[in-house]
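Suppose you are handed a protein chain with no further information: no name, no annotation, nothing but its sequence. What can you learn? This example shows the usual starting point.
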Amino acid sequence: MTITIRPATPADVPLIASLIRALAEYEKLAHEVRFDEAVLAQKMFGPRLYAEVVIGEIDGVAQGFALFFHNFSTFEGKPGIYLEDLFVQPAARGSGLGKALLAHLAALAVERDCARLEWSVLDWNAPAIGFYQSLGARFMDEWTVMRVDGAALAELGAQGNHRATGNSGAIA
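A reasonable first move is to predict its three-dimensional structure. Written in structure tokens, the prediction is:
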């Protein structure tokens, strides 16, 4: 068995879309999947890259992926890598592919002088939690994820229409 991790290409967008849908099914969140493949492609491979993807293959067959992007730690003064999604097909679990994907991202974080690699995990996903802890991941119990989306995002954004004045960066 040969495990390979490779960067995704624009030709992989249908594969990435398929893996995202499989992940959503596993997480019982299929009803939340709303992306358009063309928009997904533009955001991952267009002029401004919002996310990167690596594909995990076993014997040349795609069996998983990791989608990630950079964040920034003000306390460390360095970037980090945020793992948005990690998914390995059920038939390939236990093969070492999940660990290989995470090890690849950790190596990228080190290469890019990042302070950390972090992600969220659903609290009911005991197999994933155990796996992550076996790799040295720790809970960030003191933090709670917050989100603004949909109509609330649009409403808040409408309140933020402003213009910068001068060179001070002050908001008028």
